Amino acid sequence: MNILVTGGNSPLGIFFIKRLLNTFVDCSILALSRTELGIKDKRLESLYFDLVNDRFNIDKEFDVVIHAAASVLNSMKNLSELSAVNLEGSTKLFERIKFSNNSLVLNISSSSVYDDPTTNILFEYSQKTSINHYGLSKLNFENALTDIFVSTTVNLLSLRLAVVLVKDVKYNFMSQWLKSIKSGEPIELSHPNALFNACIYSEDIFQFFLKYIKQPITKHLICNLSCKHPIKVIDAAKLMMKTSNSSVPIIEKKSDKKAQLISFDLASKNGFIPRSVEDSIRLYISE
User: Fold this and answer.
1) Which pLDDT tens digit goes with each residue over 141-184?
2) CA angle (182, 111, 138) in 5-degree steps
3) Closest listed residue to residue 10, CA positions, set 24, 27, 25, 31
4) pLDDT tens-digit series, residues 238-275
5) With the C-alpha atoms ordered 150, 99, 22, 244, is the resulting torsion angle positive or negative?
6) Contact, 261 vs 236, CB < 8 A?
7) At residue 78, does pLDDT exceed 90?
8) Is 0.85 surpassed by the pTM of this model?
9) How many angstroms separate the most distant Cα atoms in the chain?
10) Spatial contact of 122 and 186, defined as CB atoms under 8 Å apart
11) What structural domains does the chain harbor?
């Protein structure tokens, strides 16, 4: 099995590479990365690749492509980088990749594609953003992939994720909570008493991917992933403190944006089995 992983140096990219190597004995992985991966395995090849400036010229057909590369607001130099990396550069890359028959593309997208201020739960059909630059770049790339593969045998799975709980992740609010808790600093909460399920543990993403690669129910699927059994935001923060054996002050921060749950109903119909928010937090902290 020939596998291509973009964003190989990202926390989620590294996680996928390690799990792929452990799961598929006969796999051959090409990881596109901008730094060294630190993973030694003869089945893994790392290629320095810049989505904006480099052209993909690999004469090999891939059975699986996992697209984890992305520019996020916290790491970018300017707003134009979001579209250059997440849309234009990523689209050009996929137009040049060679795919085997009935191959699978796993695209890591984002719940930032939504902006529906009136609803308590975000579904795949909920109103989309027209102002969030990051969300727009991910939404427009989803559409670009659909256009590329609509008349092909390629299976496409785009996952809209909110807070990804994976080792060494940096740029989401729960990772910032954990950083503050470990350093003894206060944490800030918006809507502390609102129900929350908008996180996903990395292994649950991988298990859904495994089910989908064996037998995709829907050829081109775009869906949300989230946790079951929502808990209050403040209870999630307290659980992180308890699991970390530390306690820090909690500061309530005002927010004009509504706290919203994320539906995983569509993913469940296609084989996704979510775990609870509590279990996801405990597993994330124990990594």
Assistant:
1) 999 999 999 999 999 999 999 999 999 999 899 999 999 999 99
2) 110
3) 31
4) 999 999 999 999 999 888 888 999 999 999 999 999 99
5) negative
6) no
7) no
8) yes
9) 55
10) no
11) 2-286 (3.40.50.720)
